[in-house]
Amino acid sequence: MGLSLINSTTISLIFSPKPKLIIPKFHQNVNFYGDRFCKNLSFTTTTPRRSLLSIKSVLSEFPNEKSYSKIGAQSTGPIPSKQLLQVVELAAKTGAEVVMEAVNKPRNISYKGLTDLVTDTDKMSETAILGVVNENFKDHLILGEEGGLIGDSSSDYLWCIDPLDGTTNFAHGYPSFAVSVAVLFRGKPAAAAVVEFVGGPMCWNTRTFTASAGGGAFCNGQKIHVSQTDQVERSLLVTGFGYEHDDAWATNINLFKEFTDISRGVRRLGAAAVDMCHVALGIVESYWEYRLKPWDMAAGVLIVEEAGGIVSRMDGGEFCVFDRSVIVSNGILHSKLLERISPPTEKLKDNGIDFSWWFKPENYHTDL
């Protein structure tokens, strides 16, 4: 008798699920900047064309950001980073004690220019800061806003001190001023501290921002990070205007108007160190300004970078603390902001506005 297929045992057929897309491993030499890819990716396995197209679609969600150089020091030389940071923080807090003692008292104001004022508190704060630095590092070079350049110009270490950033705000009791201290190693920021005054008359308080190159950024000892906002339309921005009302000043007035139209707003608080710390804290997305000095920027730029942000010149070029313009951002928006900021900055350069280094101490060694 022949076999009957009809009466044979029924076998259930189990179909494999639809294959999932598996993104292949990346080579170890792929570079990252913050949490985003910043260079082309290479694959270690053979992948079907359809899968590659899917991967390309996924990766296209990441902004096509230019890679920006780190501005922090790669080394701190013979002095450990921790020791530098301890002295930087002590110096800033010592200056802040002087400011706090004077904050509710009448001001004795003098003028360096028509509207550029200075108070006795600026000078007293700088003296207190210098005392801390000299007690710990007698052979270091120091650049202070009020006292100028002192010390050994052949030193690898340069201290940039703003004893009262936002003096006009301080003189009026307006809550946006700070003490800013940073130390450079061979021209690049190695450690930084900014003591920001918050509150207002009769309720003053402070918060302290610190950073060391490669060591992260902190506010009152807690680690901080820039915002993750990825749209200019959803951003709160900050800028500043110097005392010299030249073409660069007028250009930034126009940028202020332009970004006010397309963002959630643009603020002008009047203290560069404070503005940059607010970017690092993640409460604003970007800050830019022309005509700053090393003591205005040295601490703030390192704090932003260590909080995950990006620092460059306003023309998009590589930044150093001796430059005449700066833009800091959360990184995600940097190229988008420069699309509007860089062209008018290039135009200023074409029209003869000087954007060379503002100042570098003679004989001071740098890696720049």
Automatic annotation (TrEMBL):
Catalyzed reactions = a myo-inositol phosphate + H2O = myo-inositol + phosphate
GO MF, one annotated term? inositol monophosphate 1-phosphatase activity
Its annotated pathway reads: Polyol metabolism; myo-inositol biosynthesis; myo-inositol from D-glucose 6-phosphate: step 2/2
EC identifiers of the protein: 3.1.3.25
Q: Name one Pfam family in it.
A: Inositol_P
Tree of life domain: Eukaryota
Q: Which UniProt keywords apply?
A: Hydrolase, Lithium, Magnesium, Metal-binding
Q: Which InterPro entries match?
A: IMPase, Inositol_monoP_metal-BS, Inositol_monoPase_Li-sen, Inositol_monophosphatase-like, Inositol_monophosphatase_CS
Cofactors needed by this protein, per the record, are: Mg(2+)
SUPFAM superfamilies with a match to the protein in the record: Carbohydrate phosphatase
Q: Which GO terms describe its biological process?
A: inositol biosynthetic process; phosphatidylinositol phosphate biosynthetic process; signal transduction
What is this enzyme's class at the first EC digit? hydrolase
Sites where the protein binds Mg(2+): 145, 162, 164-165, 296
Family to which this protein belongs:
Belongs to the inositol monophosphatase superfamily.
Name used for this protein in its record: Inositol-1-monophosphatase
Q: Which organism is it from?
A: Papaver somniferum
**Top-down, what is the taxonomic lineage of the species of origin?**
Eukaryota, Viridiplantae, Streptophyta, Embryophyta, Tracheophyta
